[in-house]
Design a protein that fits this description.
Blueprint (H helix, E strand, L loop, with lengths): L7 H12 L8 E2 L7 H13 L6 E2 L10 E8 L6 H9 L7 E8 L7 H8 L4 E2 L3 E4 L6 H14 L3 H12 L6 E3 L10 E5 L2 E5 L1
Parallel strand pairs: 3-4, 4-5, 4-6
Antiparallel strand pairs: 1-2, 7-8, 8-9
Helix pairs in contact: 1-5
């Protein structure tokens, strides 16, 4: 979820979509950011200096149904767009959720991103953030970086499949494969009573 900049951030979102089981909601500003770099930086500087709250199109009504939420977008001078403040102020229900920040940047890293989230949501669990330089986001190594990050957090597809099996495996003595299907005794890693076993 987040303001998906055409290009760098959109590519990072694509990696996350491919490697994790997520729904995507894009925060789109009513007034688009200028495409020209110099015009965009001047516009963003004005937003920051004037402490603006840019409006965004549409909205998401069911955030309360999610326990873990990725929030990402471009990072300018070590901070997310002011648009994020608008979104945060419209969604107090994110307090108490697990939030995973991410974004692309021009060299500043994620900066104060996690700090801003904690400012708005003091009861949220903010997990390790990931920022990737825009000039390297298209490299295969960046996709690997995203994959390793998701695995560390335990939110990649394989990890969440295991968690889902642990949650749903209530029948004692029944084994399940990693994709959550009831096992018929085939070889491989399986789940029984919430624990992993290897059938050889």
């Amino acid at each position: 979820m987040g303001y998906v900049e055409r290009g760098n951030t959109a590519i990072m979102v694509d990696y996350i979509k491919e490697l994790a089981d997520v729904d995507v909601f894009e925060i789109v500003p009513v007034v688009a950011y200028p495409a020209d770099y110099d015009e965009c930086t001047a516009y963003v500087t004005e937003e920051i200096n004037e402490n603006r709250r840019p409006a965004y199109k549409d909205d998401i009504a069911n955030l309360v149904d999610y326990e873990t939420i990725f929030i990402g977008g471009p990072i300018w001078w070590g901070r997310p767009p002011m648009l994020f403040r608008t979104f945060f102020e419209q969604h107090p229900e994110l307090d108490g959720k697990t939030i995973i920040p991410f974004g692309t940047h021009g060299g500043s890293g994620v900066g104060s991103y996690a700090t801003l989230i904690k400012e708005y949501y003091p009861n949220a669990t903010v997990l390790e953030s990931l920022g990737i330089s825009g000039i390297s986001i298209r490299n295969a190594s960046s996709k690997t970086m995203v994959e390793n990050w998701l695995k560390r957090l335990g939110v990649d597809k394989q990890s969440t499949a295991i968690q889902n099996v642990r949650t749903n495996a209530v029948n004692k003595g029944v084994s399940y494969s990693l994709n959550g299907m009831r096992s018929t005794g085939q070889r491989g890693i399986q789940i029984r009573n919430g624990n992993k076993y290897i059938n050889r």
